[in-house]
DNA sequence: GAGTGGTCTAGACCACCCC
DNA sequence: GGGTGGTCTAGACCACTCG
């Protein structure tokens, strides 16, 4: 564990545990240097992690202050960013999966372009429904190059593809480019998600990248609008 | 202008102008040190800006590589992040505004909590419709504490509140916490946005903060789903 | 003027990749 | 083994806030 990560985690815990009230001032960077026995630039980096998460604000000439945001935000953005697949973001709930389609096909030109592969290559073509505590929450359309992510089996799909990638294949996920939009469900999706009446879906389309820069996934997840939101923090 | 900002901008331009092909390797950090006459940590910081924007990937032991994402992404996330109000994010289009409501009221308990003020305080209560090239694109419900953002006039609302804050009041915007969701428009909104038939709206609710940590705005903008998306890049 | 965080340096050592 | 980026140091100076 790096020093700055450990320090960031420490401060985070102090805030989450209520040791720092919302609006109150954090210990000075100089003080933290002494407390942790590190240089100031390392403390700065640790605190900058919290700034990135939106938990604190730095004011040059004054100090660093706790922002005091809603608890939901802290939980959702938290130490981990809005990352991981579906399973990881809903800890504490019972997650189950229904695999509706699992084939290997050629990608469309659009998908091939996004995944930086040829239409001659092969991709997994997966449709899954995700349930939270037994209620359908979203339907996920996933395409992944078999070259990049080999060994996907039915069993992997029932759990987390992300776990398979990081734990079994030992690959690192680096980033995701997401586009969020609103749409109406198709008739099939209304069945999948047990939607009656008029309810839109929140669509999250993403291209995800490994740490070596290769795109490894193009997916669209379409969520019931009454049970899902997408959160983001942006810093100027 | 700071050195690392200038260097980041330089590299960004090299990528945007196509001097670096997608997938190609950037100049080494050591080379950039020589080129710009700065220390390596400064070059690193510059390149990290581009990583944050999702334009490049660093591979320890190998180098830094251009990710090769869609042009839309680069434009939208770009050098500026997905920031600024509506006017700034649609340069090149003709933007106009229709003010439907402009009053001063007490905030609801929920809004007061988010803005860290009392329900006894006053907030502007604003409803505006935004048009892109003459077509209604979204309706925006804004509440701002009059104490924090004084001097809002009809004329300001016709242009950009953000410009007023940064240029007239000389305040710095620091961050925004956003929650994106999908919903159906109300009957009134269908009129405002000239929606016929069944079309959902993409809602972006946000609390925005000044650089001194004070929340200064709670707003909900509800966009026609057929003309709007929300983009985000997340880095592990 | 005293004190805060912001930027930057020159140099060290480490973890990792590839040959 | 040679070269990459990652982390960290000790110290300097600057920009800003506040009393």
TrEMBL record, chains A, B:
Chain ranges of the HTH gntR-type domain: 1-69
Checking SUPFAM superfamilies in the record gives: Chorismate lyase-like, Winged helix' DNA-binding domain
Q: Which InterPro entries match?
A: Bact_HTH_transcr_reg, Chorismate_lyase_/UTRA_dom_sf, Tscrpt_reg_HTH_GntR, UTRA, WH-like_DNA-bd_sf, WH_DNA-bd_sf
Q: Which Pfam families match?
A: GntR, UTRA
Q: Which Gene3D superfamilies match?
A: Chorismate lyase-like (3.40.1410.10), Winged helix-like DNA-binding domain superfamily/Winged helix DNA-binding domain (1.10.10.10)
Against SMART domains, the record matches this protein to: HTH_GNTR (SM00345), UTRA (SM00866)
- Ranges annotated as spanning the membrane: none
Task: List UniProt keywords, sorted A-Z.
Answer: DNA-binding, Repressor, Transcription, Transcription regulation
Q: Which GO terms describe its molecular function?
A: DNA binding; DNA-binding transcription factor activity
Give start-end of the signal peptide. Answer: none
> What is the originating organism of this protein?
Anaerovibrio slackiae
Q: Which domain of life is it from?
A: Bacteria
Tell me what this protein is called: GntR family transcriptional regulator
Q: Which GO terms describe its biological process?
A: negative regulation of DNA-templated transcription
């Amino acid at each position: 564990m790096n020093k700055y990560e450990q320090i960031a985690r420490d401060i985070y815990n102090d805030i989450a545990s209520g040791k720092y009230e919302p609006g109150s001032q954090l210990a000075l960077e100089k003080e933290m240097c002494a407390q942790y026995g590190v240089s100031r630039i390392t403390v700065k980096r640790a605190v900058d992690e919290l700034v990135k998460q939106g938990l604190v604000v730095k004011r040059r000439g004054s100090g660093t202050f706790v922002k005091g945001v809603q608890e939901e935000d802290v939980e959702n953005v938290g130490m981990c960013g809005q990352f991981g697949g579906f399973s990881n973001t809903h800890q504490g709930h019972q997650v189950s999966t229904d695999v509706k389609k699992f084939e290997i096909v050629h990608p469309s030109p659009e998908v091939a372009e996004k995944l930086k592969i040829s239409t001659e290559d092969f991709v997994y073509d997966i449709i899954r429904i995700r349930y939270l505590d037994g209620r359908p929450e979203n339907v996920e359309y996933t395409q992944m190059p078999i070259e990049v992510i080999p060994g996907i089996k039915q069993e992997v799909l029932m759990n987390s593809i992300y776990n398979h990638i990081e734990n079994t294949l030992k690959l690192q996920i680096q980033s995701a480019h997401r586009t969020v939009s609103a749409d109406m469900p198709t008739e099939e999706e209304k069945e999948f998600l047990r939607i009656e009446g008029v309810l839109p879906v929140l669509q999250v389309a993403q291209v995800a990248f490994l740490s070596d820069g290769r795109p490894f996934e193009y997916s669209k997840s379409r969520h019931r609008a009454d049970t899902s939101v997408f959160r983001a923090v942006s810093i100027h």
